[in-house]
Structures are given as structure tokens and as C-alpha cells.
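A favour, since you know our C-alpha cells better than I do. Just paste the record in under my message, thanks.
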Amino acid sequence: MVSRRRLLSSFVASAALAACQGRTTSAAPLRYATAQSVMDSFVAERKVAGAVASISKNGGAEQYLHAGLLAFDAGACDPDSIYRIYSMTKPVTGIAAMQLIERGQLRLDQPIADIIPEFGAMRVATNVETMETRPAQAQILVRHLLTHTGGLSYSINGNAGMPLLYRQHGITPVGPSRTPVQPGEQALPATLDEFATRLATLPLAAEPGTRWEYSVSLDLMGLIIQRVSGTPFAEYLQQNIFDPLGMDSTGFSVPASAASRLTTNYRVGSDGALIVLDDRANSAFANYAGMPCGGAGLASTTRDYSKFAHMLLNDGALGRARILRRETAELARSNLAPAGVFMEPGVGFGAAMSVALEDKPGAPRGAFGWAGAAGTLFWVDPSNRAYSVMMTQYLFGRYSMRDQFRLAVYQDWAGRGTKPGKDD
């Protein structure tokens, strides 16, 4: 099981970066020598097959770094290599919801039961072992879904209690997978409607608006977007985010025409060796036609996701495309969590992205972003007019390339002085 603490802490890492030594596998400009060395080191030690990153600061052109391969049995990776981004899907879904809020089709503090009536009379578990329940005192709001404060949970949050109950009912929206359904568990529903119907029968883990808990809320948001817009969720993202931004290689499925650019996903074995989990030659993402998981279902490239990050830095615009109005973009990256509720001390939550409320190493106040279970990461730092995206593919590792890469980028910037110049 993925360590949720390790994933969540990647955005707000507080440990100092250890020096990385290893053979250089790809050239990088001197200004990002530390960040490049992190990537090279992980590849040289066979902790990852490959990695690609983009960095931009002070309005400068994107600088791409890369090391290693698409897979141990394939060619080199590059900015157009395709990665399973898992939970980095969530901010995309969050921004789609913010578009509907901007258009007046949805409200932040609107009960989701207005759109999905099955959630109108939820119950809260008072004992997660016996599943004794009581009626919920509050409604789940759109705000709650965006900030993981709706009382929902996740199948990946543990092995007992609510996570086990979720698996038993097939509430397992973790993206395309060929992992067999275990005895006593159900398969993921084929549609968002069935997913919501099933989820609404289960008790909440907490009273809505009272606690932050990582959850399937952005998968449920996919259905809200679908019903409010009148457009299938995947099509909505394509028409309103991917096409306008030119994210041509991002989607819930990888077509045959792009299969040669797909990476292999690995899991880290008990001995530290990488074991194939989803082979690029026979991937579950190839022509996937199941439920579009708004919380973990997308595949993307470093180049594509950099466009999304750049748009967020630019207050909702990229080139001639405007995805959000400035004020909506500012709202999306603000702390939208209910008063007094935090992801962790000093960290709030915006539109499906964590937001630094105070300065931390690698996360200045106001920086926001998120990570993916297979080692991917993105963040936007408005104070430095900067953003970065890092892609790789490994699950269940007891090491975090994300933390080291992120802090290395700030080390490289600091090495050029407190007021770095443009990257171009």
C-alpha cells in the first residue's frame, strides 16, 4: 500500500536534501546541476528507470531535464514520454469544477445533494470497526469535495475500517489497473453514476466540514461536473482544458498511436528491486474505456502538464487560451478548507491542491501543487513566478525522489542569489 503520509509530505518536505552522487546520464545546464544530479542518482542506482522534469522561473522559458529510460527494456525518456500521473489528476478536476463555479453553474457552498440526491441523508460512522452510525448533522458541500473535508475516505488509506469497506464495495478509483479483484471485494463500477450510487450507501468517516481526510471526493466531483455541464466528464476535460491548452497527450486512455511513448510502471519489491507493475507493452491504460477517475485516472507528459502548471501561474491563462478568470484562479489557489481545518499544520487546501500557509523548506508561503502515487510531482510558486513538473514511475518505494528533487531545485536557485534571473 502507498504510504499516504509519504505522498502528502512530498509537497511540504522539511528535511534537508542529502547530496546525491552518481553517474550523469544526461546533460543539464549548470544552473540546475543539483536537480539533475538527483535524477541521475536515482537512475544510476536503479531506483527508477527514468525521469523527466521541467522548470521555469521569473517568466523564463521552460528548461527540461531528463535521465534514463521509458523502461529498463526501452529507449530514452523525454518531455513527451507518457506517465501515469495518478493523483495529479485531482487538480485538473478541481480546476474544471472552478470553471463551473465561475460560470454560475455551481457554487462553492452548494450541497452536492442538489446534484446527486442520494447524498441528501448521509450517516456518519461512530465506530469504524462495527460500523455503527448516526445521521450526519451537515450536508456535504462542493467546497468539501475540493478540499477533502466531506467525510469521505479512500481505499488506499489503510487495511481496515473505512478503507476495507470501500474495497468491499468496489470504491477503488485508482486509475486503470490489471490487478485482480480480491476475494470479498467488488470491482470498480463502470460508470460515474453507479460509483456515486454505491458510495452514497456507505457511512461517512467524519462529519462533513470537520476533518481533512484524503478521499475519493474528486472522483465524485467528476459526476458533478458531468451532470452540471451536460457533457461526459472525460469530454468536458478535453473540450475545456486539454484542447485549449494544447495538452495533446493527456487523457484517461493511451491510444495506439502514442503507445511507443508510454512508460512502464514499477513497484518496489521488499529487496528494493523494481518489479514491473504495468508494462508499457500491455498497459491497462491502452485504450481504456472504463470509469474516468477524476482523482487518479489520467496519463500525461511533462510537456503537457507543464502547460497546466504554467496556466495556473499565469492566473488562468496561457497564450490565447483563458481557462479561468484571474479572480477565479486566485480563489482556486487560496485556502478553501473550512475554518480551522487544515491538511496539516501550516498547510491549507485549495481546488484539489495543497497550499502553503507559511514558509517551509521547498514550499514558500503561497506555493501550491500536488503529487502522484507513482513519484510524480508539480508545484507552482507565485512568489518566485516559478513552476516545476517532475515525472517518474515507481510505487511503494521507501524513498522519495520528489522531496529530493524539489529541494534541489530551490538549492540551484539559491546558488544564483536571492533574486534569480530569467531562465531564458
User: Anything to note?
Assistant: The radius of gyration is 20 Å. Residues 40 and 320 are 36 Å apart (CA to CA). Residues 89-102 form the longest helix (14 residues).
